[in-house]
Amino acid sequence: MTTKRLLLWIMLLPVCALSAAEYTYVMTDYTAPSFTTTDNRFELKCAKGSGISAPQAGATDKFGDKDMRYYAGNTLTITSLGEGNITRITFAISRNGHASLTQPTVSTGAMEATPDYITQDGHRAWEYSWNGCAHSITFTIGELCTYGYECTENNKYDAGTLFFKAITITTDETSAVEQTPATRFEMFAADGHLNIIGVADGTMVHIYDITGAYVLSAPLVNGRVPIATLHRGIYLVRTDNHTRKLMIK
């Protein structure tokens, strides 16, 4: 009986395929901390939970950054609106979020903090990622700060936060919407150029660093934009109605 129950429990666990599709969303496109992504692929739903402060959309700060802000005790549930499972979620922490970044607890899977690195404009950038296999994940923001630069011995009882400027969600679907040749979109870097398929020449391409700071804009010419001046790092590319993450090694 025990063996049968264990096998049934294992069969009910989500099984993620090896294929993957990645979607990046910038918080300047949203006005509230609970929202459905503009492409209707994912729902982000938050609650005050046990926290003193309620989640909120941050105002644009002196750096030109805008973020979503979740405080100690708040919950954030991210759900795929398609049939596939979510396998990775990466939060690009805003500069205001560096102070009291905390360790959230998660309903499934595991969290990992990426060491900070220096962006092209000399600012520090942090990423915080969830890894697992689930259709829906709930994050509960930690009560105390753990990773932020203010989380010193003297401030170890400060309340924790999760403030992010952008979020990248990876699923086990090749695409949540079947693409025809007319709607196909691809983007890749080669020979000092960013090559884009599926967007008309003349369309403006906007590139930001991972903190959301503007880097460059240029029209698409022969399906390409020159990016030889970009330093190694992670960038967000926006063109037409597409937003994608670009890594330059």
Can you give me a brief rundown of this structure?
The protein has 249 residues and is mainly β. The protein has one helix at 2-12; strands at 21-26, 35-36, 42-47, 56-57, 68-71, 75-80, 86-93, 105-106, 110-118, 124-134, 136-140, 161-171, 186-190, 193-197, 204-209, 214-219, 224-226, 233-239, 242-248.
Describe the overall structure.
The protein has one helix and 19 strands. The chain is mainly beta and 249 residues long. Mean pLDDT is 80; it is low at 1-13, 117-123 and 175-182. Strand 18 and strand 19 form a beta hairpin. The termini are far apart. The strands form four sheets. Strands 1, 4, 5, 7, 9, 10 and 12 form a seven-stranded antiparallel β-sheet that branches. A five-stranded antiparallel β-sheet has the order 2-3-6-11-8, with no helix packed on it. The chain has a four-stranded antiparallel β-sheet with strand order 16-15-18-19, with no helix packed on it.
Radius of gyration: 19 Å
Number of helices: 1
- Give the % helix: under 10%
Instruction: Report how far apart the termini are.
Output: 53 Å
Order of helices and strands: HEEEEEEEEEEEEEEEEEEE
Largest sheet: 7 strands, antiparallel
Low-confidence regions: 1-13, 117-123, 175-182
Key structural traits:
seven-stranded antiparallel β-sheet; disordered N terminus; mainly beta; five-stranded antiparallel β-sheet; 19 strands; 249 residues
